[in-house]
Amino acid sequence: MRHFYLLIAICFLSPVMWAVTNDPLSNLKPQREAIAHYLQSADMHSTVFTGREHEKYPLHYKNHPWFQSDNYSKATIYINGMIYPDIQLKWDLYKDQLVISPENSPYNIVTNADSAFLYNQKVCKLPFQNNQLPFGYVIVLHEGHNTLYLKHLVHFRERVESGQLVSSFAIRKTFWLSQAEGMTKITRLRDVTRLYPQHRREIRSFLKNNSLNYRKNPELALTSLMEYLDQL
């Protein structure tokens, strides 16, 4: 009798055992991976490569308004907490837009990225507060107890030279220090010493000992100085 029940159990369980050991979907791993890659790619395209087209500038201008170069460079961008590496990107300083070039596409798309790493520089977007404070994309020069930003101000100019209308862009760098008390514009070294009156001597000694000249290279001087002050 026991053998009879054992035979019945084997008859019922054998199809299940066959299904587990011979799962037809187990042979679909490459297809599953391809589908997952497609969905990831589709999500990337719908997120990254969706936006308005960047309006091109006239062909004839004396200089360009792009950060570092008017050619695309490989960058990493961040959108809603997601990371998208190896994106062809350039930064229009005049319009304050990050522009991407989709693969095999003639269009230049304006992306709404929250931040990016471009030319080994961290670029982030500051929200609008008022006209007295910087907003839009800025370069993060230093992050520590305080944050040092670099904001480009760009003005478009047109003038007649030798009977021809010449277009150009005037680009100026401005520096901002973000502290718990608020944001301060740094236009001269005295602005820093006012914020750190207890370290006035250390600041002067540091700049002198490291041959840092604010007037000649304010970006290097301020970045190095903020790194030093974080150690005090």
What's the helix and strand layout?
Layout: H1 2-21, H2 29-48, E1 73-79, E2 82-92, E3 97-100, E4 109-111, E5 115-118, E6 121-126, E7 136-143, E8 147-161, E9 164-179, E10 182-186, H3 189-195, H4 200-209, H5 218-229
Antiparallel strand pairs: 1-2, 1-5, 2-3, 3-4, 5-6, 6-7, 7-8, 8-9, 9-10
Description:
Strand 1 (73-79) and strand 2 (82-92) form a beta hairpin. This protein has a 10-stranded antiparallel β-sheet with strand order 4-3-2-1-5-6-7-8-9-10. The protein has 5 helices and 10 strands. The radius of gyration is 29 Å and the shape is globular. The protein has helices at residues 2-21, 29-48, 189-195, 200-209, 218-229, and strands at 73-79, 82-92, 97-100, 109-111, 115-118, 121-126, 136-143, 147-161, 164-179, 182-186. The chain is α+β, with helices and mostly antiparallel strands.
Summary, kept brief:
The protein is an alpha+beta fold and 232 residues long. The protein has five helices and ten strands.
Total E-strand runs? 10
Question: For the report, how would you describe the main beta sheet?
Answer: 10 strands, antiparallel
Rounded average pLDDT: 82
Which word captures the global form? globular
